[in-house]
Amino acid sequence: MRHLGMCDLQKVRKRRVEFTLQDLQAFAAWSRDFNPLHLSEKYSRTTSFGEPIVHGILGVIRALFFLPPPSRHRIQALDIQFLGPLFTGISYSAEVEEDLHEVRLQDGEKCLLRIRLQYADTGLTHPWKPQTAHLKVPKVVTEPKVWNLGQLSSGMTFKGVWSADWGSSASIFSAAGDIWSTLTEQDERVLNALLWASFFVGMESPGRDALFSKVCLKILDTNAGKLEQDFESLSYEATLDSIDSRFGLLRFSSLLPFAEIQLEAFLRKTVSPFEPAKLLSILPSSKQLEGKVALVIGASRGFGAGLSACLASQGCTVWASYHKSETEMQNLVKACAGFPGKIIPIQGDASLASWCREAKNSVQRDSGKLDFLFCNATTSLQRTAGFVPTNVALVDQPLSHFGRLLDESGGICVLTSSTAVSESDSDQPHYVAAKRAQEARVESALLEYPRIRALVLRPDRMETDLTNSPLGHIGARSPLEVAVSVVSRLLDPMLDRLEVRENF
Predict the structure, then answer these.
(1) 52-86, pLDDT tens digit by residue?
(2) Strand, coil or helix: 210
(3) What are the Cα distances from residue 53, in Å, to 205, 252, 261, 294, 375?
(4) ∠491-369-440 over CA atoms, to 5°?
(5) What are the strands, taking DSSP E only, across 348-486?
(6) What is the pTM of this model?
(7) Residue 85 CA to chain centroid, in angstroms?
(8) Which of 24, 336, 362, 483 is within CB 3.0–4.6 Å of 306 for a Cys-Cys bond?
(9) What is the rounded CA–CA span in Å between residue 359 and residue 300?
(10) 484 vs 89: CA distance, rounded Å
(11) 480 close to 313: Cβ distance less than 8 angstroms
């Protein structure tokens, strides 16, 4: 039998844990944390993660399930650090220190979640069975609040009523064997405090654009403090203690009837959308590229959208490839409607040979040639599994299928690489490896196709969805400004066979 808050001081083994989309949906209903970062593929694509990520507190609860059988010890305090995102479909390692004072979830050697625990000698061992039906719960709100830093100030208080939906938790507990049947009142306090923390950060503040950083939780020793109406609901009050505007880091505190909680969470910055007027103010429209045809892989957002708009502003016909960001592509087409050139959306996965064959047939049939091939797409840096082969394919497949067409026109292949390729020590080795391999693939294309030229771009960090993290946007450049510099270079006919550019 296992209890969340009871532990024997004995050696434990590493275990494996994996999450599914169904887990995320069940936890959202259980905790009332319906933040779209965990549930909406459309919304999560606009973030640096590129796909829904696991609720941090769900990762905590699943990790605590691996604590060994109960003794007289109980959880008195938890210090939780969220060090990286958890994704569905990946097998993580749950590791418990021998003295049981630390539990981690790891992806290989990389620690993504760290829980430090303190224990007291006695605890509430009375069995507790959650009520799963006929609860008088508060009205369920499924849309999180949206804040910006200008609306928040130190000392603000947030009040409300919350309740967990224990009827939605069965599938999560089923993954842990007999946990459900062996819950105690101590487990109830730990779980309710964690669930409330997830709800507050994901739905109240920072709300929709939250990114959890840290939780410090201390369970109170008093036997009082049961939830109102026999655990059916909780009236809470939380205070915003401080704001670090440099990183958008918010610190909160709350005293619940059964726990003291300190929370830290980032308020993620919103990336500015493409503005045609800003483009035309630094690159006036012209017809210098009239009659030219370009294919931009990864054109719907960020740097790719900037490149596509710049090309169209100079009269170029742009085949703009996108995978799933249909709304962003529609906005780009609309924004560039008055330009001398035109944008032709083309949807699909450019890492696939089948898509590249169909795209080549369309370009060749409707445009007859290809003058520029921009290999710009990159998948989320956060999901390391499969990152290198997928991103190499995003260059290899387009070059394999469009290389001859590009060679016939004496065209230019433009690769979006990174200054990271020259770094000897990087915290993102998978990204460096992929970019180095992409550059090597472009160089090999020059050997295969004698008339092709190549422009390899190694810009500094740009302010895009891919880099929109608490630290990633600091010092980042405008992607539009870099795009203007690149297209201006292409207007110059004196381009070397292989040019590597780092200054923009």
Answers:
(1) 999 999 999 999 888 865 643 478 899 999 999 99
(2) strand
(3) 18, 23, 24, 35, 27
(4) 70
(5) 372-375, 412-416, 453-457
(6) 0.82
(7) 7
(8) 483
(9) 16
(10) 39
(11) no
Digit-coded pLDDT (tens) for 351-385 = 999 999 999 999 999 999 999 999 999 988 777 77
The helix/strand/coil state of 319 is strand
CB 344 within 8 A of CB 382: no
Is the CB of residue 69 less than 8 Å from the CB of residue 55?
no
C-beta pairs of 93-97 under 8 Å, 24+ apart in sequence: 93/14, 93/15, 93/16, 93/17, 94/14, 94/15, 94/16, 94/17, 94/62, 94/63, 94/66, 95/14, 96/12, 96/66, 96/67, 96/68
For residues 112 and 106, the answer to whether their CB atoms sit within 8 Å is yes
Report the C-alpha gap between 336 and 278 in whole angstroms: 12
Phi, psi (deg, nearest 5) at residue 305: -65, -40
Tell me the residue ranges of DSSP E strands in 369-475: 372-375, 412-416, 453-457
How many angstroms separate the first and last alpha carbons of the chain? Answer: 63
pLDDT tens profile 270-289: 777 777 788 999 999 999 99
DSSP 208: T
**Containing H/E element for 102?**
strand 102-107
- Residue 429's alpha-carbon distances to 3, 343, 435, in angstroms, are 39, 35, 10
| 502 Cβ neighbours under 8 A, 6+ residues apart | 419, 458, 459
Report the C-alpha gap between 186 and 456 in whole angstroms: 59
DSSP characters over 53-80: ---HHHHHHHHHTTS-S--S-EEEEEEE
Interhelix angle 429-448/387-408, nearest 10 degrees: 20
Indicate the pairing of strand 412-416 with strand 453-457.
parallel
Give the C-alpha separation, 437 to 392, whole Å: 6
Q: With beta carbons less than 8 A apart as the criterion, state whether 152 and 242 touch.
A: no
Q: Helix or strand or coil: residue 50?
A: coil
Whether 324 contacts 349, CB under 8 Å: no
Nearest to 311 by CA among 362, 374, 368, 360: 374
Q: Which residue has the tokens 């460096």?
A: 432
Burial class (CB in 10 A: 0-12, 13-18, 19+), 27: buried
User: CA-CA distance, 113 to 213, in Å (whole number)?
Assistant: 10
Contacts of 366 (CB under 8 A, 6+ apart): 344
Q: What pLDDT is attached to residue 362?
A: 97
pLDDT score recorded for residue 52: 95
DSSP for residue 501:
E
Calpha distance 299→309 (Å, rounded): 9
CA 398 and chain centroid, separation: 26
Q: 253: which residues sit within 8 A by CB, 6+ positions away?
A: 238, 239, 241, 260, 261, 262, 263
The Cα 405–Cα 422 span in angstroms is 31
